[in-house]
């Protein structure tokens, strides 16, 4: 490789089912940005996306494969749980054929798959021409969960404890620019319990190895700056990492919408990452396909707000919001990271002038920030008081709102502000009132019977998403 020549490597690190997020990143990097990679490496769950990449699939085709995948098809109970808790037989029969991985037709051969040879106690890398479905299963056969795969009289398992991203293999293949998609959690939040301890051990192994490689690359680059060719790797290595806390468990995912949502989250993060790094997206789609499905329900919350603050408090009064929540495009709503719906209805307050119609509004269900174990339910409506002044009511439900196990309290308590003017989400506004509104048990019963949808199955799908999200944030604490 001549000096100054760029050889770019795609590093598809492991992360269990979190690598559905990785597929969304590939849609953006490969298709929307049009990036080309000369070399690739995959470890653990990352080998799924690597296999599709090697067989010539576009980023969108890889992302769509995950969008169509049911996570329940990944596992089957093993009749001999003392050998392994689960089996990949169902995955081999149901998922692999739909992904259309054809090992006989490799279009991108310069790649490495990582698997651990337990018999010899050593890491093994395989080229695409050596791979088949059994090798692919060996690359993801996580001890305890899946039994080892026997090949040529030797046992092979997931490489995750040896490496979750084999940067050395990509460098050995001549790469000098490493693009890593990292979905292993770096939060450092300790949880008790056997299963959590298991996956936290994986996080320790993966993050420690990645940090060590970052140190070695930094020292290599410093040595090469002093004298060309004297660093460990003999040339400057540029490391680019797209890292995210993905709100999925590594294995315990049961809702297809959650898996699909992780893909869309990857798309969102990758677009933001490219914008931050000044990478153009000339092929970004202009719009999303229409979704004709519909769902709506009503919600009424009441409480007391204080006008003014502290010594400036001028009045207290009851305030209620009667909302109609409209989800135009249920499928898109459930997988979009913003989960946004339209709000119409009324704000009722004697202090503000009685029953006041809502001009416009938006509701966001279970959006999250940097903490994948916390969600926010956001409400924002614009209306005019009796004197014609434009106001904004902004509220949020925090799930969970404290360390206590209080799902009922958290999902029915709306922390509310009334702001001057038409204030959009993310903008600051002048507060004129604040308080707390509540959804009563009677109000919940009325809400439940108000659900209407273009197909009855959509209501069940909505509740499955709602319950699955609450289970994630409360049972994973």
């Amino acid at each position: 490789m001549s000096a100054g020549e760029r050889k770019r490597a795609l590093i598809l690190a492991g992360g269990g089912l979190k690598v559905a997020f990785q597929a969304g990143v590939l849609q953006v990097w490969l298709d929307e940005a049009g990036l080309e990679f000369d070399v690739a490496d995959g470890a653990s769950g990352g080998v799924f996306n690597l296999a599709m990449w090697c067989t010539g699939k576009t980023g969108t085709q890889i992302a769509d494969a995950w969008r169509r995948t049911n996570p329940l098809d990944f596992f089957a109970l093993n009749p001999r749980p003392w050998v392994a808790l689960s089996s990949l037989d169902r995955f081999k029969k149901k998922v692999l054929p739909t992904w259309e991985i054809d090992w006989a037709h490799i279009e991108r051969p310069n790649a490495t798959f990582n698997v651990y040879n337990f018999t010899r106690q050593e890491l093994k890398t395989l080229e695409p021409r050596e791979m088949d479905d059994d090798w692919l299963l060996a690359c993801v056969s996580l001890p305890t969960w899946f039994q080892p795969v026997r090949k040529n009289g030797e046992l092979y398992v997931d490489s995750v404890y040896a490496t979750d991203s084999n940067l050395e293999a990509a460098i050995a293949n001549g790469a000098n620019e490493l693009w890593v998609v990292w979905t292993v959690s770096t939060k450092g939040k300790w949880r008790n319990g056997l299963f959590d301890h298991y996956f936290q051990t994986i996080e320790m192994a993966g993050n420690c190895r990645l940090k060590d490689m970052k140190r070695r690359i930094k020292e290599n680059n410093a040595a090469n700056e002093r004298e060309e060719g004297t660093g460990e790797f003999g040339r400057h290595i540029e490391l680019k990492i797209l890292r995210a806390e993905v709100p999925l468990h590594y294995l315990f995912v049961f809702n297809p919408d959650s898996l699909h949502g992780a893909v869309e989250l990857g798309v969102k993060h990758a677009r933001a990452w490219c914008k931050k790094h000044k990478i153009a997206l000339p092929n970004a789609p202009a719009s999303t396909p229409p979704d004709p499905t519909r769902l709506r329900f009503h919600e009424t919350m009441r409480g007391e707000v204080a006008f003014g603050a502290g010594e400036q408090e001028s009045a207290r009064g009851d305030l209620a919001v009667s909302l109609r929540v409209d989800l135009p495009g249920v499928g898109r709503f459930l997988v979009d990271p913003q989960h946004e719906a339209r709000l119409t209805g009324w704000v009722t307050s004697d202090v503000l002038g009685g029953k006041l119609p809502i001009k416009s509004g938006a509701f966001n269900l279970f959006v999250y920030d940097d903490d994948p174990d916390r969600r926010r339910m956001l409400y924002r409506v614009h209306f005019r008081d009796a004197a014609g002044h434009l106001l904004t009511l902004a509220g949020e439900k925090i799930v969970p709102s404290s360390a206590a196990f209080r799902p009922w309290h958290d999902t029915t308590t709306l922390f509310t502000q009334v702001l001057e003017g038409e204030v959009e989400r993310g903008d600051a506004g002048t507060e004129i009132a604040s308080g707390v509104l509540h959804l009563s048990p009677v109000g919940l019963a009325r809400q439940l019977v108000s659900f209407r949808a273009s197909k009855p199955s959509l209501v069940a799908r909505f509740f499955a998403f709602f319950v699955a999200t609450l289970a994630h944030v409360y049972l994973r604490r």
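The radius of gyration is 26 Å. The chain has a mean pLDDT of 93.
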